[in-house]
Specification:
Blueprint (H helix, E strand, L loop, with lengths): L5 E7 L2 E6 L4 E6 H9 L8 E3 L1 H33 L2
Parallel strand pairs: 1-4
Antiparallel strand pairs: 1-2, 2-3
């Protein structure tokens, strides 16, 4: 294993662990922190790698949120149009 690597893995239930092999350190991080690292994972000074399970959990959570927002928007649009056509 590369000793300079920082890896994020999932603990399940929206909890993640960040493993820093350079300093032999592990930290439990929030889902929000993991998502922020995921969105900024191309940062050159601190390259962070994700396990496949962590990537799957993050991407599923993002997809679920997008579906929730779409359904909420559709419901809002439907109720607005229902008032217009009355």
């Amino acid at each position: 294993m590369n000793t300079e690597k920082v890896v994020i893995d999932t603990l399940g239930n929206n909890k993640f662990v960040m493993q820093d092999y350079k300093y032999n350190d592990e930290s439990v991080i929030s889902a929000k922190a993991a998502y922020q690292h995921y969105l900024n994972c191309d940062h050159k000074l601190l390259p962070i790698h994700f396990t496949k399970n962590a990537l799957d959990e993050i991407q599923n959570a993002i997809e679920d949120e997008l579906v929730r927002q779409e359904e909420s928007s559709a419901a809002s649009y439907a109720s607005t149009n229902a008032k217009i056509f009355r």
